[in-house]
What we know:
Layout: H1 2-13, H2 18-30, H3 34-47, H4 53-64, H5 68-85, H6 88-102
Helix pairs in contact: 1-2, 2-3, 3-4, 4-5, 4-6, 5-6
Amino acid sequence: MEKIEKLKSFLAGSPDDSFLKHALGLEYVKIGQDILARDLFVDILTRDPAYIGTYYHLGRLLERMGEPETARIWLEKGLDASKKAGDLHTYQELQSAYEDLID
Length: 103
């Protein structure tokens, strides 16, 4: 919980920092606070669709939460964004997650 409190404190000073929000979302995932994590991930990608690392985590989280259709939509958006960014590594990770989801 100490890490979460530190991240929240940093976010108070930089409320639009995608990196801090992403880190906080990952911490929420670790402790099972899936809705809080989802809300942060969606906020990041709504404001900054080029923050491509978050698509994978959001897709996997939504899949685990029993929302496969929403996960598919976000993974597809991530595939487009990573292709546009020329980030082959992230594209491949997203492609793998997408294939796991639709199989």
